[in-house]
Amino acid sequence: MKFTAVLAILQLMLITCHAFRTQSVAVRGKLMCGSQPAANVQVKLLDEDHGDPDDTLDNVFTKADGVFSVSGFASELTPIDPELRIYHDCNDHGKPCQREWIIRVPSKYIYSGSEPLEAMDLGTMNLEVELESENQECPEQ
């Protein structure tokens, strides 16, 4: 009887561990502010979680030429919901807080395992553009 109970518990643990699957994603691109490369712009790759804090998969700053590359992985029961967040001051008209762009990553760029097979290539984006969905809220002090 004890052996059967132990075996059942081990099977349940194995099934639970296997249910959490590792998923990975990567994004690359180049950011400009008008005709100038947007250097030192913060770019975050997040797994948006509904109901609990988002998971930061990667966090970088653009190089002097505006180029960035982010990648990361998470283990979840359900598919991850990756999004790219870009924080910048380009064309912000002197406002004290950074503009925040949120770009959702299509599911076709989510891969099984800890290494993505291909990065989503964002291309070159001009941060002067004002997105309808962008945020520019100052954190409370």
Per-chain topology:
Elements: H1 2-19, E1 21-33, E2 36-37, E3 42-47, E4 55-61, E5 67-76, E6 82-88, E7 99-104, E8 111-112, E9 120-126
Parallel strand pairs: 1-9
Antiparallel strand pairs: 1-2, 1-5, 1-8, 3-4, 3-6, 6-7
Provide the descriptors you would attach to this structure in a database record.
1 helix; four-stranded antiparallel beta sheet; Immunoglobulin-like; 141 residues; mainly beta; five-stranded mixed beta sheet; 13% helix
Task: Summarize the structure in words.
With 141 residues, the protein is mainly beta. It has a single domain (22-126), classed as Immunoglobulin-like, CATH 2.60.40. Helices cover 13% and strands 43% of the residues. It contains one helix and nine strands. The chain has one helix spanning 2-19, and strands spanning 21-33, 36-37, 42-47, 55-61, 67-76, 82-88, 99-104, 111-112, 120-126. Strands 1, 2, 5, 8 and 9 form a five-stranded mixed β-sheet that branches. Strands 4-3-6-7 form a four-stranded antiparallel β-sheet, with no helix packed on it. β1 (21-33) and β2 form a beta hairpin.
What's a concise summary of this model?
The protein is built from one helix and nine strands. It has 141 residues and is mostly beta strands.
The amount of beta strand, in percent, is 35-45%
Mean pLDDT, nearest integer? 87
Low-pLDDT residue spans: none
Count of structural domains: 1
Question: Based on DSSP secondary structure assignment, what is the total number of beta strands?
Answer: 9
Roughly how many Å apart are the termini? 60 Å
* Architecture per CATH nomenclature, i.e. the level-2 architecture: Sandwich
Anisotropy-based shape: elongated
Order of helices and strands: HEEEEEEEEE
Question: Class in CATH?
Answer: Mainly Beta
Portion of residues in helices? 10-25%
What is the alpha-carbon Rg in Å?
20 Å
CATH T-level topology: Immunoglobulin-like
